[in-house]
Amino acid sequence: MQAYLEDPEAAKAALPWLKKGEEARRQIADLMIDLELHRNGDDVHFWAIHMTEDNKFVGMIGLGDELQLAASAYNLGYWVKKSYRKKGIAMACVDAIFEWQSERSEHSLIEITVHPHNEAGLAACKSICNRWKGLAIEGYVPIEIDNRTIPHVLHLVQLNRGE
After folding, report:
1. Distance of alpha carbon 72 from its chain centroid, rounded?
2. DSSP single-letter state for residue 68
């Protein structure tokens, strides 16, 4: 909750369903309970990001199950606290998770959806796609958020292509 309060707008960009104010506290608690319920399954995988030197919480990253394509295995989502951005933390986590997922599965299609006005998110997706041979799909995919349809750019990364 402290991380949310540091930058509520960025948290909302990462978790678009998140309401503002006191409602956010309940929703974050519900998210933690939901993730705990899924911890022994294989449909979602989420991790807290902590600094190695002081174990300070700096964000979250995960592979979720809110998918746009039937062929996809997971969607990637992440959020890093404002004071820890632009340090390569998210990219290091993505690399670790994609390497882990590559060892677990022969083929795994990962989706990343980003609002077209989220310039930092689009730049991060471009970097992820460059590193992992992914691509942006032309056009937009509709994402339902708060009973509204909001267009997003869809990026796809196919892990373990047999290369």
Report:
1. 14
2. S
